[in-house]
Design goal:
Radius of gyration: 27 Å
Shape: elongated
CATH superfamily of the largest domain: Bira Bifunctional Protein, Domain 2
Bound molecules: histidyl-adenosine monophosphate
CATH architecture of the largest domain: 2-Layer Sandwich
Strand content: 15-25%
Structural class: alpha+beta
Distance between the termini: 51 Å
Strand order of the largest sheet: 1-5-6-11-10-9-7-8
Helix content: 25-40%
Number of helices: 15
Length: about 425
């Protein structure tokens, strides 16, 4: 008996209606990155498992529970990348790129985590990641945040998002904090849920991140990492806050923000949808990771970065009015002669107007049927070639989105008309 094959749970097809929208958004995001001088790096989807263990951390949810790990035919343990920072750092070390100071890079593509799928949380999802290397001061953190702020303003969703910040300090500062935190929670063992009891032994800072409503009062009363910061960390954080204020970028300090990956130090930040108390409300997140490069065998190199979750961004945009780029023209051709004339006309127009979005009707059919398809395509105008147009050497044009009457245009008039059309913003 045959059964219906379906996509793997939590891994989704992007259908033609959506891909157009994705590409539009991606190209806007990338264009902004390029204006800031960031360059693309393309990285493998598969890395040695060891890389993620040594960077993300052995006792994180990602490494403990969520990696797609397998032994390949040569007996090596490999993993589908759950995030992009580790691979990016590995590549920079491997190719000696850190000898050039101030590398500014971006990458995009699918990431894989075996999480429980739900709205906004998938097993294959897409990130656009941005990383800066070799800049120790808060100006790098500020630039990364300014890029996000510019993206969200360009997309018209800046009011839907809140920028949350925290400072995790240095390793030593965190160690002191951790000791006091363990002592505090150990005094309230019966109030901890199962997850937190486990984290108390492995990664106690993550208890602060718990979304369990029953534990919020306890978490509220816990020691605050910000109180453990020394002078250098404080001044880094203050420098960041001052520069954000100078740029008019609003922020909230969230002393409970700890992040789920171990490599961070000093600044961490998240852009969240405030109405969402659940983790899926985080659209974009990152921070500093000043010790990771050295930890992975590279030269000591401060670094910072973040990644944007594309599915979550697109979901946020779904109810906003960013237009999809519909075709300018749908070329209708009826009659034998119009077939070849229409084909030649369409290719010629593509030569003259490289930005023209023109759909040539394929497969014949009556005027009525072709008009129906033209309308469904979302095109602004139908360009019509019938027998009369071909014999008399003109084209007809009909607006599809308003009630302007159909017009007959000579080739020259058509050129003038399309010249105007291609200059319009959309
Ligand atoms: P992350 O917080 O694990 O950080 O992921 C960044 C973003 O990816 C999240 O804010 C979210 O939008 C999206 N995301 C994560 N998991 C899922 C999922 N299962 N389904 C859908 N979207 C998801 C990192 O990955 C770091 N590498 C960011 C970074 C770069 N830090 C420094 N540089």
């Amino acid at each position: 008996m045959s059964y219906k094959l379906q996509a793997v749970r939590g891994m989704h097809d992007l259908l033609p209606g959506e891909t157009c929208r994705w590409r539009q958004v991606e190209s806007l995001l990338i264009q902004v990155l390029e204006t800031y001088g960031y360059q693309e790096i393309r990285l493998p989807l598969v890395e040695k498992t060891e890389l993620f263990k040594r960077s993300i951390g052995e006792v994180t949810d990602i490494v403990e529970k969520e990696m797609y790990t397998f032994i390949d035919k040569s007996g090596e343990s490999l993993t589908l990348r759950p995030e992009g920072t580790a691979g990016c750092v590995r590549a920079l070390i491997e190719h000696g790129l850190l000898r050039t100071p101030g590398q500014k890079l971006w990458y995009q593509g699918p990431m894989f985590r075996h999480e429980r799928p739900q709205k906004g949380r998938y097993r294959q999802f897409h990130q656009l990641g941005v990383e800066v290397f070799g800049v120790p001061g808060p100006d790098a953190d500020v630039e990364l945040i300014a890029i996000g702020w510019r993206w969200f303003r360009r997309l018209g969703i800046e009011k839907k998002l809140e920028l949350q910040l925290n400072c995790l300090g240095s390793l030593g500062e965190r160690r002191n904090f951790r000791e006091d935190l363990v002592a505090y929670f150990s005094g309230h063992l019966d109030a901890l849920d199962e997850d937190s009891l486990r984290r108390l032994k492995t990664n106690p800072l993550r208890i602060l991140d718990s979304k369990n409503p029953a534990m919020q009062d306890l978490i509220e009363g816990a020691p605050r990492l910000l109180d453990y910061l020394g002078e250098a960390s404080r001044s880094h954080f203050q420098g960041l806050l001052d520069q954000l204020s100078a740029l008019g970028i609003p922020y909230t300090i969230n002393p409970r923000l700890v992040r789920g990956l171990d490599y961070y130090s000093l600044t961490v930040f998240e852009w969240v949808v405030p109405s969402e108390v659940i983790a899926q409300g985080t659209v974009c997140a990152g921070g500093r990771y000043d010790t990771l490069v050295e930890q992975l065998g590279g030269p000591p190199t401060p670094a910072a970065g973040f990644a944007l979750g594309m599915e979550r961004l697109l979901a946020l945009l779904a109810d906003s009015k960013t237009p999809v780029q519909a075709p300018h023209l749908y070329l209708i051709r009826v009659g034998e002669q119009a077939q070849e004339e229409g084909l030649k006309l369409s290719e010629w127009l593509r030569d003259v107007f490289p930005d023209l979005r023109l759909v040539l009707h394929l497969g014949g059919g009556t005027f009525k049927a072709q008009f129906k398809r033209a309308d469904r395509s979302g095109a602004q105008y139908a360009l019509i070639l019938g027998e009369d147009e071909v014999t008399k050497g003109y084209v007809s044009i009909k607006a599809l989105r308003d009630s302007q009457p159909q017009r007959a245009l000579s080739r020259d008039e058509l050129l003038v008309f399309l010249n105007q059309l291609c200059k319009q913003p959309n």
